[in-house]
Amino acid sequence: MTFTGAIGAACMLPLRLIIRACVALGIHPNVLTLIGVLINVAAGFALARNRFLLAGVIMIVANIFDFIDGKVAHITGTQSAFGAFWDSTLDRFSDLALFTGLIYLYSTVGSHDYVLITTLTLIFATMTSYARARAESLVQKCKVGFMERPERIVLFMIGAFTDRMAGVLWVILVLSVVTVANRIYYTYLALNDLPMPSPTGLKGAVTRAFYWTDERATLAYDLWVIAILAFVWLTPPAWIGDPTAAGPGLGGILLRAFGLHQL
């Protein structure tokens, strides 16, 4: 089992209890979806007030509801086409609430660069979902690209709890651009009956890293997660002009320990 798989399995233990409670209480999954988005709006307000730790706690609560609604629908047999539409639409509102909170925060502290970076991240995060939805109206499936919504939400929580939101935004922005490009390229190949890129050989290894088709909880997925966390936690906040982070960060501490802090 990979370490991301182990974390997922551990998180499922309390979630199963919550799912059983919702089923026993007869709570409709559409109501759970609505509760989740309303709580995420509260997380957006916390981000806007630079209350990152509070925002992280609220996001955990919100995304419990976001995760269990589909499970409850499956167990109770209440899945519906409208339910899928409702869930997908409210997910976009949840994402927009978080990004809007950050845009407000960076505007109030006078960080125009991060207002722009957050806005671009919002655009490409939205286009990630749109590209898949539009592609799947033309081809059977378009689940390629690393930076999907679960990864974005987990990164938001990591940024909130560790006060490294600027690094998180850069990761989401860059990998969302790559993910949108992946989905455009995949759809082009599928619609024109062209072969998908080969994952073999040295060229294939590079292609596999940036044209993402692997599943979660695999070794390749774990390696990307490690690389992302290393960037977020080891990059000194001053290097990326983080307007809210305090202190030199883990990377800055290590640089000072080796006498390289002036780099």
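Second entry:
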Amino acid sequence: MRAIIFDVENSSRAEHVEQVLTHLRLREHDSRTRLLAIGNWTVVSQETARLLAGLGAELIHSAPAFGVKDWTDLRIGVAAGVWLGAARPGDALVIITDDQAFDAVGDIAASLGITFDRLSYRALVATQAIDPAQSPRRRRSRGGRGRRR
């Protein structure tokens, strides 16, 4: 079995998410892979949510109460711990985040015989494992005033 826990706030653009999941060879729903996408869904695009949901991801909201900005790291840590509690040697856990604190989860995974990898879109681009996604070009608006002379 394999679990992929995606910190969608670090890589929330749909094209970035798609590139990382393609890199992991996850292009369609895979019954042997549990995909968790964790983040504050009020700041993540609907396009990203649709992409992940189409792959069977569990979309977990990390801002649980009014006034609580974000508990993404806590939710990721708990999700990883719960999954590791049921995992068996030979299983694999991937956490997609820029946060190096989750490398500590890799120490626990290794002690249980579980393969661990922490990836991020930025790191994959920096090491040229994937090509950077093209940013959509934005047109500048003059606020409806027309041309200046």
